[in-house]
Amino acid sequence: MVYLTLLTFFGLSFQFINSEHTDIILLGSTGDLAQKYLWQGFFNLYEKHSSDHHTFTFYGCGRSPKHSATEKLNKILDKNVICEKKNCVDQKKKFVSLVSYFQLASEIDFKNLGQLLKNSRSVTKYEAITVIFYLSIPPEFYTRTAENIHKFCYSVEENINFRIVFEKPFGYDTNSAIQLQTNLEKYFKEDEIYRIDHYLGKSVVREILPFRFVRQLNPEIEKLLNNKHVERIEVVLKETVDCKGRFSYYNNNGVIRDVLQNHLMEVLLLVTMELEENGVKIPQQKQNLLKNIETPLSVLIGQYEDYLDQSNDEAPDLAEFVPTFAAALLSIESPKWHGVPIIFVSGKSLNERTSYARVIFKNNIFCVSNCPNMNQNQQIIFHIGHGGLPSPMILVSKYFKTVEFPQGFNTEHNLEIKKQIYGKDFSEFFSAVPINDIDAYSSLIQDAFNGRKESFIDGSHLVDSWKIWEDILKYSTERIPRIYENGDEHNVLDFKIFGSSLEYVKNIEKEDASDSFSPNSFLGRKLVTAESETLYKALATDIVSKISQQNTQKFHIAFSGGKSPIRLFQILAALLSDVSLNHVHIWQVDERCVSRESEDSNFHHLLKNFLSNGHISIPDDNIHPMPVSQIKRNCDLESKGNTIYEQSIKNHIANKQFDYIVLGLGADGHTASLFPNEPTLSLKSYVAMTWKSVFRMTLTLPVINRAKQISVLVTGKAKRKILKTLEKSDPGSGLPILRVNPTDGEMTWYIDSNALSLTLN
Ligand code: BG6
């Protein structure tokens, strides 16, 4: 309780002003992060700083009503706040008595909270008050919440230090990061905003700069941190966990946004930035370095094999090419670092959990006599956690004669590690472990409380750090990731640096071809099957050969939408570049009623990946997008956009017979935008409107089945189930793909090995 002393003297009352108070308001107080780390962090803060002169109040907030949430919150505090020190049970009791739940579901709630905070300040006068709002909520609510906090709970009184803490992600790409920054700046000053990257709170990461700063003691080492001496730098975060429980977040982000753009980049900055010098402060040095980091020269991506199936169960609207593994080759274009390969690696469902940054030095000394260290590269390793070591640690090869470790690190740790570590015996390293290995969130909560902004992400860095990844992010959503088994048992992710690119060591295409049994028909029709990249090439080659067989006679081809054909478009664009395509007409099988700029627009992908490739020469009049872009006019039933498209088909195509149609297959058996058991399946017209999450336009069975060639493209593990169902189903069932039966034409299945394997079991 607040320390208040009332003295009565000659009948007058004096109130001694108590010194300091902190209000902590946690939004998302019963969420995962709060349960695992934040409440413990607040308790540690309370234990360390509460006194008669410094009081605390904690508000756990959320959208749920008070009654049910209070019960949940109490349980969390009871179970998850652990007493580590002796005699802390009483402290915990006091702490819990200072926590109360406050519902924040509407503007009025924010107003009431603001009033409550104000009232509590008017009862007792403090010399200084710190107010920390900690937002552990989904990022889509950041702006609106910030606005409400500013409107109702923000105060500019002199003795109030206001802080607002955000969790990553800070944006989704450069533009959204700028947007978020602009929105936050409307309400708060930069020095009030604390953006958390919890890697900056890890005990070893916190000590990277202090380790380098003791350079008067480590002069040898600091002198060697440059391209003359460093062979390469690796920053790695490997995990054994998969993405269960997080698909709605992960499908939209993938490993590059989740980890490489932030955690790994922050660690790299600390290892390679210039130290504070000649008055240039750390944040400025970081920014200078960020501006010199180029878009990665090369990136490899992978996806663990169960990803699509797991995601399908949890968040069915999946994004197929989400990378769960990435390796990136970066470079810093500064005189100091030019030419040093920097490798980032991170992935889920790998064989071990470990994270580290290591600097590997060149070994360019030819030793002639007495050479115990022959062929050994010297290293400095910031071992952040897990892996083969029992504790976070800094390791330095003993080649360096002496090493000084920062205060707070202990070299007398008596840890005996028998196995090889980072390719060497443990005894070949100097090593030091943190004396207090405090959890990252607890450290950062202390830093936010103490106003130590250097442990947080600076707003001005965000845009530069997103820019580095912009091109890669575009590319990665359209590339098929390499599929790896959980734990990468067969080492398919091993890669090598080859000049300025990374290459997987194993060529799994060849293995697939030789090892696997490939049937040549599926449901009585021709089947082509291979690893996905080969499969796309086979389909593209078939299309190109049919186009050239037609000579100058008109060739009408319709492409269906979705993500699967994107890679096909790219390969086609390469095969057809600089070929005259005056006789080729491009049509759409289906389209969503969204604007052409939207990522959901099928035409958008066709345009971006095929038609707008500068080397494709198709006359504009030969391109026939479905008329959906002016949503109001053509997509509502009355304006009859479908009839316009049907008329266009009849006008242009002799016999109304497409030469080629590329179809896809949905996990529910849909094809084009014809969904199971829908009336559109029995329509006689050629083009129909339908609805599935949005309005769509689609070709119907009568025109599809007239085509000369239909190819059905099926890729990815998520399609295994439906392929199995198709094998067992009656053609008369309501599954649209089973109604595809060209009357005079050919039909071929193109199924990749990931999708097909279950049907063979
Ligand atoms: C988080 C990512 O920021 O960091 C997670 O969102 C990842 O996907 C985690 O698992 C890794 O953190 P740590 O502390 O477990 O290494």
UniProtKB/TrEMBL annotation:
Organism the protein comes from: Lottia gigantea (Giant owl limpet)
An individual GO BP term: glucose metabolic process
One of the record's GO cellular component terms: endoplasmic reticulum
GO molecular function annotations of the record: 6-phosphogluconolactonase activity; glucose-6-phosphate dehydrogenase activity; NADP binding
Entries under InterPro entries matching the protein: 6-phosphogluconolactonase_DevB, G6P_DH, G6P_DH_C, G6P_DH_NAD-bd, Glc/Gal-6P_isomerase, NAD(P)-bd_dom_sf, NagB/RpiA_transferase-like
Highest taxon listed in the record's lineage: Eukaryota
CDD domains: 6PGL (cd01400)
Glucose-6-phosphate dehydrogenase NAD-binding domain span: 25-206
This protein's name: Glucose-6-phosphate 1-dehydrogenase
Gene3D superfamilies named in the record: 3.40.50.1360, Dihydrodipicolinate Reductase, domain 2 (3.30.360.10), NAD(P)-binding Rossmann-like Domain (3.40.50.720)
Domain Glucose-6-phosphate dehydrogenase C-terminal: from-to ranges: 214-488
Keyword list, A-Z: Carbohydrate metabolism, Glucose metabolism, NADP, Signal
Pathway per the UniProt entry: Carbohydrate degradation; pentose phosphate pathway
A Pfam family annotated for this UniProt entry: G6PD_C
Signal peptide range in chain numbering: 1-19
Chain ranges of the Glucosamine/galactosamine-6-phosphate isomerase domain: 532-749
